[in-house]
Amino acid sequence: MGLLTIKNLSLSLNGNKILDELSVDFWEGHIHAVVGPNGAGKSTFAYTIMGLSGYRDFQGDILFAGKSIKNLPIDQRARLGITLGWQEPARYEGLKVRDFIKAAGRFNGEENGVVEEALHKMGLEPLLYANRAVDKTLSGGERKKIEMASILAMRPKLVLLDEPDSGIDVSALKNIFAALTYLKAMGSTVILITHSLEVLKQADHAFLLCAGKIFDKGPVSRIQHYFEDKCLICDHKNVPEEFPVEVKG
User: What one-character-per-residue DSSP string does 31-52 give?
Assistant: First the structure.
């Protein structure tokens, strides 16, 4: 059993089944990628694990460190060490970067130096950023890096990153990839939700999600085969062993 175990997870939204009896284990201390076409259910999967409003009415179970978190609200999941990095980081009018990062650091009772260390790791000069507001004056790349700085400060056990490359330039992406190295070094388990080949390559292990099911899993080199051929949503029965590698979804 991994740090996170998903058992027969099914979820319907607006009458459409998005996740379909999905079962998977995520190993502790690894960087995992969940890839697949648009509409495959990738973000829904992350939101369900995090326990966001609108994603709580599901069948099956979610086990974290061997215990069910199915009925836990989002704040209790966060206190267990689970966090989510948004595809589009939120803006907080009037909240300073320093306070935003400190709020995350308190999950571990740490405050002294946590802001400066986290910002430095993300390539941001504390003197220039610590007292800025987390608002529209920051670029998309800056907000992504500040959000990641807050995650580093939190030292979470499990990090869900939804499209970490969305809306940022190559320079910011390098900082995000460096943060993945820091997270792994501190023992965090990371799940990358992505349709980017470059993001996929940062993972140790990957899963191909299609039509709400895990269609394939294995090393990045295996999943990359499907990814490069742009596997699309189709009507296959999601039974990998019945399909040779050459057959595309």
Answer: EEEEE--TTSSHHHHHHHHHT-
